[in-house]
Design goal:
Blueprint lengths: L1 E2 L9 E2 L3 E2 L12 H5 L13 E4 L7 E6 L9 E3 L4 E5 L13 H14 L11 E6 L9 E9 L10 E8 L2 E12 L4 E2 L1 H5 L9 H9 L16 H4 L4 H14 L6 H12 L4 E5 L10 E7 L6 E10 L12 E2 L1 H8 L6 E7 L2 E2 L1 H9 L4 E4 L1 H10 L5 H8 L3
Parallel strand pairs: 1-3, 5-8, 15-17, 16-18, 17-19
Antiparallel strand pairs: 2-12, 3-9, 4-5, 6-7, 7-11, 8-9, 9-11, 10-11, 13-14, 14-15
Helix pairs in contact: 6-11, 8-9
């Protein structure tokens, strides 16, 4: 759905609806979010990532705004799981972690969720908006949902984490927070003006407040295959990063294999790499390992085989080199009983190869160029310098 700029003050809050920004004033008067929430509670500001209405524990609501394009702070929505990763507002060197108001709010709500008293009544609703430029306005936004702190499977030491960044020779910390987007299709303005009124609240919100269980908005894709465009980094810096990786390993492709194995351990930190196989007798497997699942004291292990292909990525106008059916079949044919495969490439998997993997139900994880850049950015390798330092070890 799409709402024009002059409709915003009465526009309903609907998940994935687009709200047009202004284009005439060419200043913050064109900002759509503050106009949408004018008169809803005490209203909110017209700038910043954290835009709170109300003060005190459990009072008001907070809009979390993300551009989705800041390489040092890669906010991310996982549509499959309903998880949302958001970075705090201590984004420049020279300040303490808890100095900005946004980070103090994160500390309060996450502490309330994990307190012995389970003080969820101190938590306010978080409304997720992302930048979504439209034809007439670069300030337009899209509503992505109602969120609560935490995510099933993450402990109190994992859902709010202080991460290190550096500017020049100065190091500083910021928060990486993980939220759950609730299974709520729309949010009423009346409830946001009267947060304590349970009768106006969405059912999933009341359920979370009472039980602590977040019923998440999980949306599985209708197609299990990704296009070349979806597998390729799109932002200029992201394309620079994947090209840097490719250029680093050109002419010595076997050195890419341990790097590819490292990428998989970043995706699944518990994964154990048992062996990087010899190129002369790898049997179609560049690495083998195990992935533990279950309780830490007594896990079971899933064996996997990994194949790595350092192919030219289709960036900066180049056509690139795709992973063909023959490449993927080499791995598939050598998978043992109860073993899954991992295919890592700096490029992309061709449509036919991808389709055969998914339609035939082969247990193969695909990590393409866009995935590699995404996981590296989440680990803090967000620029040429930091990535070059990592690559220097391979």
């Amino acid at each position: 759905m799409f709402f024009k700029f002059d409709e915003l003050q009465n526009a309903p809050l609907i998940v994935d609806a687009v709200y047009e920004g202004g284009w005439e004033a060419r200043n913050l008067a064109d900002e759509p979010i503050s106009k949408m929430f004018a008169g809803v509670g005490s209203g909110i500001g017209n700038s910043g990532g954290f835009r709170r209405s109300g003060t005190g524990n459990g009072a008001g609501y907070c809009v979390l705004y993300t551009t989705g394009s800041e390489p040092d702070w890669p906010d991310y929505i996982d549509l499959r799981t309903g998880g949302f990763t958001y970075f705090g507002d201590n984004r420049i060197a020279g300040r303490l972690l808890s100095a900005p108001q946004g980070n103090r709010l994160l500390e309060t709500v996450f502490a309330s969720v994990h307190s012995v008293e389970n003080a969820r009544s101190n938590v306010i609703p978080f409304l997720i908006f992302e930048k979504y430029p439209t034809e007439r306005s670069q300030r337009s936004v899209r509503f992505r949902g109602l969120a609560v702190p935490g995510l099933s499977g993450l402990s109190g030491t994992e859902d709010l984490v202080a991460v290190w960044r550096s500017t020049g020779d100065q190091r500083f910390q910021n928060y990486r927070a993980t939220f759950s987007i609730l299974d709520v299709g729309s949010v009423s303005r009346e409830w946001l003006s009267d947060i304590k009124n349970d009768a106006l609240a969405p059912e999933a919100w009341n359920h979370w407040m009472q039980t602590g269980e977040a019923i998440r908005l999980q949306a599985l894709p209708t197609l299990e295959t990704r296009s070349q465009l979806e597998q390729t980094p799109s932002a200029h810096l992201d394309q620079q990063l994947i090209k840097l990786i490719y250029d680093h390993f050109v002419g010595r492709y076997t050195d890419f294999e341990p790097f590819a194995a490292h990428i998989f351990t970043l995706v699944h930190p518990g994964a154990i790499i048992d062996e990087i196989t010899r190129s002369t007798a790898d049997g179609g497997r560049d690495a083998v390992g195990r992935l533990p699942i279950g309780y830490l004291a007594e896990p079971i292990y899933l064996d996997f085989a990994l194949e790595a292909k350092c192919y030219a990525p289709p960036v900066f106008g180049a056509s690139g080199t795709s992973v063909k059916v023959g490449d993927t079949k080499r791995l598939i044919s050598r998978l043992k009983h109860r073993q899954f495969g991992v295919f890592v490439t700096t490029s992309y998997v061709s449509k036919q190869a991808y389709k055969e993997i998914r339609e035939d139900g082969h247990p193969v994880i695909i990590l393409c160029g866009a995935d590699i850049v995404g996981v590296l950015k989440r680990e803090g390798y967000t620029d040429i310098h930091s990535l070059s330092l990592l690559l220097s070890g391979y």
